[in-house]
Amino acid sequence: MKKKIIALVVFLLMIPSALAIIQVNIYVSGSIDGRIPHSNIPEEVNNTPQSFLVVWENTGSIGCRFRLRADIYEIINDTKKQVYTSWSEETPIEPGEQANLIAYWYPKSPGNFTVRTFLYYCNTIRDGPRANFTVFKQNITAKEIPVEVKTESTESYVAFRFNSKENIENLVIIPDEYPFGWTFDSKKVDWIEEGKEKIVKLDYEAGIWKERNVSFDIVTLDGRYYQSKEITLKKKREFPIYQTIIIILAVLVIILSIMLIRRRRVKI
Q: Which among 123, 51, 44 has a CA at the least distance from the CA of 86?
């Protein structure tokens, strides 16, 4: 009887060890998916800045950075001619979340147009909404924006420094002319306070970077204020910190070497 009890105890003690040896591999495959619960492309608009809105809901299991592209075509005698490509800001959307993707365009003349949108995310391109719309000429005499604008550029963004003489709201910065094939954000600035500097960055991606001229439309959504700004993209000159540290260390080594040599001479 004692032997049976001992054997049972040994068996029970061996069970946890046996279970520890068993390796269970669980693999959960990721999915990239989503839906568009809402979009907004007005059918009739004035020749003021226009926005193309697409709401994206991430129903997949992977978070991605999303960007909206809007290709605008003018329709003349049943013929379509592409006149502009607008990009939204890049927006991260985690699984289960949704966000507004908005691309802006500033039409300079009335006419009939069509827009075709695309969603870029996780190395994927998906067709978005498309629609026709008409631009009517509105009798608005735009005034120059009472804002001092200074710019600074790098290989990945353009920074605008605004110093306003009065409060400005709903200002949009829209690239007007930029190299074909590049990605250039358009952006809305909700509020610029009088007398306070505001810095706004517009990101861009260039296939092959070169110094290029780029022009921007800086305009309020109601068309009341407008200013055109042209700049030349330049690389930001960064302070050569690593080279400077190496030079300083080299100078210190030389100074210490000279001091050691002098001490040896004094002892001799």
A: 51
Read off the DSSP letter of residue 95: T
Tens-place pLDDT, residues 227-260: 999 999 998 765 556 566 777 777 777 777 777 7
254 three-class SS? helix
Distances (CA, A) of 87 to 4, 44, 91, 102, 119: 78, 21, 12, 8, 10
Report the alpha-carbon angle 217-222-228, nearest 5.
Answer: 15
Rounded-to-integer distance, Cα 231 and Cα 238, Å: 20
Alpha-carbon dihedral angle through residues 160, 102, 220, 197, given to the nearest 10 degrees: -30
* Location of structure tokens 């005499």: 141
User: What are the tens digits of pLDDT across the range 215-225?
Assistant: 999 999 999 99
**Integer Cα distance of 103 and 50 in angstroms:** 8
